[in-house]
Amino acid sequence: MSKQIQKQILRLEREQAAAINRGDLRGAVQMFDKSLVGFSSTTHARIHGLTALGRTFQHYWKRAPKMTYRIEQPHVHVSGNSAVATFYWKVWLGAGRTVRGRATHVFARKGKNWRVVHEHFSRAH
Question: Can you give the residue range of the structural domain that contains 60?
Fold first, then answer.
């Protein structure tokens, strides 16, 4: 069962990356719970909810409308009704500009679905 859940969560992560690369805000926030709390790589302040999360994506899209986002070396750990996905990320902004870092998504099972309830993105130094 754990392997099946890991695959499901990795699929959600890949679908989110594809939505970000399409500039699809609705698709980019689809896997998140409306009560999300987290930290973004674009601001020091804690973010609360989907509107604040959406501003993170809009920040990058505004800087580079044809940006590309990718996750690398994902790892998923499942424990009961919770799961943690960690990965490295890279954003290509064009003109040789790249931003990279690491991230954690904490998932909670909500009925039959998995939703991100906490996100932490940080840029590499």
Answer: 2-123
Are residues 87 and 5 in contact, defined by beta-carbon separation less than 8 angstroms? no
- What are 3's two structure tokens? 């392997």
Which domain CATH number covers 69?
3.10.450.50
Q: Of 108, 110, 120, 36, whose CA–CA distance to 79 is shortest?
A: 108
φ, ψ of residue 14 to 5 degrees: the values are -65, -40
pLDDT in single tens digits along all 125 residues of the chain: 689 999 999 999 999 999 999 999 999 999 999 999 998 777 788 889 999 999 888 888 888 888 899 999 999 999 999 999 999 999 898 888 898 999 999 999 999 999 999 999 888 87
CB-based contacts of 27, cutoff 8 Å, min separation 6: 15, 16, 18, 19, 20
* CA nearest to 101, candidates 72, 78, 66: 72
pTM of the model: 0.92
Q: How many domains is the chain built from? A: 1
